[in-house]
Amino acid sequence: MNKALIVLDVQRGLTSLGDVSATVEKIESIITVFERMNWPIVFIKHVDEQDEQSSLYRQKTENIEIVLDTKEHPVFEKSKPSAFSNSELKKWLLDQQVEHVCIVGFNMEYCCLFTAITAEHEGFQVTLIEDAAGTVNTEDTYEMKGLDIPDFIGSILNWSGCVEVVYTDEFMENVALDSALKP
């Protein structure tokens, strides 16, 4: 089954809001595996349609820059939470004969959540890599003491039975197992 990696919104505007280095390291390790396996990778960046003063994703600012090396991988823009709001993404995935998408990036409770749900709705098998999908928001953002946002969203998606949710180490073990089983 052909897999592809969707890397969401690892942009200066978000990553500068807090210490997200552990999540970014996990994302980089997943990218390395996909490159080694020669599986397709696509980067998505959020760009606001309006150039609002308060926006983290204002056009023509350094905030929309992806902080990872995208190399030769395609970069698609979106202006809504789901990466599939850009119709070119689905077309590109189908052109690559992808059946299974893996999702990493930011923010877990918005773009990762909406992209995972939409990907499943569009007929893809979906894996969200929970510890490689972070957020810059906190329990205080939502006034919910003790809230672990990635764990909460990961649990909801996992319990849905529609989206597989794993941690980076589980993903790596599965890739190693898949590689060992191939003739």
TrEMBL record:
InterPro entries: Isochorismatase-like_dom, Isochorismatase-like_hydrls, Isochorismatase-like_sf. The keyword Nucleotide-binding does not apply. Keywords: Hydrolase. Residues 4-140 form the Isochorismatase-like domain. The keyword Hydrolase applies. It comes from the Bacteria. Belongs to the isochorismatase family. This is Isochorismatase. It comes from Paenibacillus silvae. The lineage of its organism: Bacteria, Bacillati, Bacillota, Bacilli, Bacillales.
